[in-house]
Amino acid sequence: MKTEKSVNFVGKIRKMWTLFRKEINFFFNSLIGYIVLAVFLLGTGLFLWVFPGQFNVMDMQQANLDALFILAPWIFLFLVPAITMKTFAEEKRTGTIELLLTRPISDMTVVMAKFLASVTIVLMALLPTLIYFSTVYYLAEPTGNVDVAGTFGSFIGLFLLASVYSAIGVFASAMTDNQIVAFILAALLSFFFYMGFDALGGLKMMSEIGNIIVSFGISEHYASMSRGVIDSRDVIYFLSAIALFLFLSRVKIQSRKWA
What's the rounded Cα separation, in Å, for the pair 167 and 246? Predict the structure, then answer.
């Protein structure tokens, strides 16, 4: 019995890996893949090192990357939907979704493969920003006078935030066969979950339950992690949000079979 379960599990992993590689190749076979990565790195680089102002590391004379962790969530609001908008929308537009869903592979496996591919691309965009950390590390006086643990805690928080955006983007793409609509829907949903609950919680009529409402938003939990504090409650929130939108994506994909 255990052997049969193990074989089934390995089979699912192989199928997911095949779909995962297909999604990665699909993304980088178009110019948009390289444009997305370039825009993120160029945008953050210009604000942190070139444009004068409150985000410029040299102007602030502080050995930290706080500006990156303030800017990145807003840049990701547009870049992550650009990454995820094709995941299901393109399959629907070309009709290949029907072929994909008739293969001996579970709907959740398909959703997970597309989500993990999107998250991997986000990670590819984040990894080069470690160069920024190295630069700050060596520019600090004395060298290395940087909160290393806090900075890497912030990177983890940013990655989890981008992962939630990716799950939202996959769900938005599953809702439509139009990439532009998927992009707009993902951006709006991500913005709402990032700032919308803060706005609702700040209303006077919500004063008694304001803190509870705010706790449903990404911003509250990201702000905690961006200070370098890895709290299990924040991690559970991000993982739960990811699971919710992946589940909704699966439900939406399954609904095509019922129609």
Answer: 6
Q: Is the dihedral of CA 198, 201, 202, 208 positive or negative?
A: negative
Please state the pTM of the whole predicted model.
0.91
SS3 letters across 71-113: HHHHHHHHHHHHHHCCCCHHHHHHCHHHHHHCCCCCHHHHHHH
Structural domain harbouring 56: 2-258
pLDDT at 15: 80
Name the token pair of 21: 């590689």
Nearest to 66 by CA among 55, 81, 53, 79: 55
Report residue 129 as tokens. 């920003």
**Tokens 């939990």 appear where?**
221
Q: What is the mean pLDDT of the chain?
A: 86
Number of domains in the chain: 1
Cβ-based burial of 217 (10 A; exposed 0-12, middle 13-18, buried ≥19): buried
Predicted confidence (pLDDT) per residue in 93-120, tens digit? 887 877 777 777 888 999 999 999 999 9
pLDDT band at 257 (very low <50, low <70, confident <90, very high): low
